[in-house]
Amino acid sequence: MSLVVREEGVFKFVDEGQGQVLMLLHGLFGALSNWEGVVNRFSQQYRVVIPMLPIYEMPIKDAGLEGLRSFVEEFVAFKKLDNMIIMGNSLGGHVGLLYTLDNPTKVAKLVLTGSSGLFENAMGGSYPRRGSYDYIKERVAYTFYDPKVASKQLVDEVFETTKSIPKCMRIVAIAKSAQRNNLANDLPNIQVPTLLVWGLNDTITPPMVAHEFNRLIPHSSLRFIDRCCHAPMMEHPEKFNELVDDFLLKSRAA
Length: 254
Description:
This protein is α/β, with parallel strands linked by helices. It contains nine helices and eight strands. It has a single domain (6-120, 170-253), classed as Alpha/Beta hydrolase fold, catalytic domain (Rossmann fold). It is 40% helix and 17% strand. The longest helix has 17 residues, at 237-253.
């Protein structure tokens, strides 16, 4: 399925299918292609919505987690969404947690994969380095267990982004905001059923982080995928979707 990006007001988003809302939140370098497998599987049963987070466009003074959480709140209000399942990868998981903590009545379930919020490997501190295609290729490949998943198209997208000084400034500001924003004291307040799907070989948010999320979030279950790094929905889409489907069916029955 080729994903169609719609525009309404200041928002750009994907909106496919009908039923309960499944809102997907992408990471710092997230692209729509990251979620194709999820949309193809779940738009048959759910209304899958992907807001394009304004990571590269938001005012520099707002470039941080609070600015992104506010954006999601405005988008949800604009689209009149409710009773949502929120699924977030990496930074998107962090934003989803902040949104849920501030808007608990809007969220029915959470799915987190490689989420920041407790600990995240800074990947060398200098990331993103501008002007070096080989360096960007190496860093993108670092996100995956199998470097071949880092397609030329994906590397090209990230490289083009890092060529822009204003975009790099926002990326660095948001990344620093995520590292400062530790949710350890807040996670016990998450009361919705939560699925944690983690790559067993995640080098950015390692398995110990997943175990800590599982310990701190009361109604959470943890599943690992072997030979998988930071983006399970991209590296092992079928296995990832099976785990999510099983969780949604069981939590619905409960």
